[in-house]
Amino acid sequence: MTVAERIDAANAKVIEIFEKGQPVWTDVRPAGEVVPGMNRNTILYAGPPIAKERIVLPVRNAICGAAVHERLAPTMEKAWEMVMAGEIELDSAQNHNCADGACMATSASMPVCVVTDELTGESGFCVPHPGNKREVLRWGYYNDEIEKDLVWFRDVFGPALSAALRHMGGMRLKELLAKTAGMGDENHVRQPASSMAMDLQLIAALADLDVPGRDDVIRFLANNDRFSLHVMMAASECTMAAVKKIPYSTVMCGFGGNGVELGIQMSGTGNAWYTVPAPKILGMFLNPTWTENDILGFLGDSCVTEVYGFGGFSAIAGPAYVIMTGGTIEDARARTERARAVSLGEHKFPVPWDGSRGLPCGIDVRKVVARNLAPISHGSSTLKTGGQGGSGSAELPIDMFKQALAAMGKVFAEENK
């Protein structure tokens, strides 16, 4: 087979997983029990790996807060000393089939959503969404009140969700996405329809069960219209866990920022990262006095949903988000067409106001480079001091894709020596 034929064959396998995979939310378990390669002193963070001394303040706060929560350290200051000494291990969450939204840090006792693909048997992981409080670990804060919330998530919320999911035999996520198609979600930064559909199923199951804290759990679900985001992040990760094992593929399979660098992964080269200085997510600030100087570069793993085909790649499905952050419905359509032009597959979730077409998926690095056309991602911006600054979009720097394609060239060059 020629090089092109080998790449095409690999990409066909990857797209089959994207299109035919069946991610099912099966359980909620402590991260240390299910996330591959995670030890008691491991803490995972968003985006590509970064030198400890370059970690931005909100992520550092979340890491140290997670360490105190795990009782690895008595104080935030001591936690950072242990990080610098190597006594606390840090790594990129996506290198472990896990994802961290915004500044979030995942530690061993934290509950994670377990989503398993029936087609491949691979699983992905993400902590549940923390709700609509402004100050949470996910946005780079840690204090006594947040610690109480983390304990509640670990001891009450996680076990209750686990019981509900086992009672209902798991939740088939593509069925839920198909049910909510055409209801205005782009399923990265806007997902009220899919969250409500998910919450209704969970609440119905909880109503049949006598679990500790049931009423509080139901109340939390009913008040969180972004709850489905982190479950979908785990769904994306279970897909990427499978496609990372397919050599020679040029399909994008990882994407995240650490506030300093933005990076992508490509299925043919597994957990290797291709990075550039992180652009800023611009569009709308939550406080009109804030400016671009107040926010960090692209930060978080929630954009793994974009890799799966949501967010900016499916902007036409959620044009209200584009309009809210300064664009138009024509911009929303253009973003989806931009992604479609460099994609190899399509999710069959028809959007009525887009000719009932589905959503593009499977970004081909070769197409991006050949056409000099990188997709646009949606996202939320993070303040340098912690907290959400706003929401908007960012065009992905094309140099990441050029690096990835060059790396594939080196793979073939080594094989032909």
Describe the structure.
The chain has 417 residues and is an alpha+beta fold. The chain folds into 2 domains: 22-232, Alpha-Beta Complex (Enterococcus faecalis V583 fold), CATH 3.90.1710; 246-415, Alpha-Beta Complex (v583 fold), CATH 3.90.1700.10. The protein has 14 helices and 17 strands. The chain has helices at residues 3-20, 31-34, 57-69, 76-85, 144-168, 173-180, 192-207, 214-222, 228-243, 304-308, 319-324, 329-341, 365-371, 399-415; strands at 23-30, 42-45, 89-92, 98-99, 106-107, 111-117, 123-126, 171-172, 252-258, 261-266, 274-277, 282-285, 299-300, 343-351, 357-363, 376-382, 388-395. The longest helix is centred in the middle third of the chain and has 25 residues, at 144-168. It is globular and about 55 Å long. The protein starts with a helix and ends with a helix. The model has no long low-confidence stretch (mean pLDDT 97).
List the helices and strands and how they pair.
Elements: H1 3-20, E1 23-30, H2 31-34, E2 42-45, H3 57-69, H4 76-85, E3 89-92, E4 98-99, E5 106-107, E6 111-117, E7 123-126, H5 144-168, E8 171-172, H6 173-180, H7 192-207, H8 214-222, H9 228-243, E9 252-258, E10 261-266, E11 274-277, E12 282-285, E13 299-300, H10 304-308, H11 319-324, H12 329-341, E14 343-351, E15 357-363, H13 365-371, E16 376-382, E17 388-395, H14 399-415
Parallel strand pairs: 2-3, 4-7
Antiparallel strand pairs: 1-6, 1-8, 2-5, 6-7, 9-10, 9-13, 10-11, 12-17, 14-15, 16-17
Helix pairs in contact: 3-4, 5-7, 6-7, 7-8, 13-14
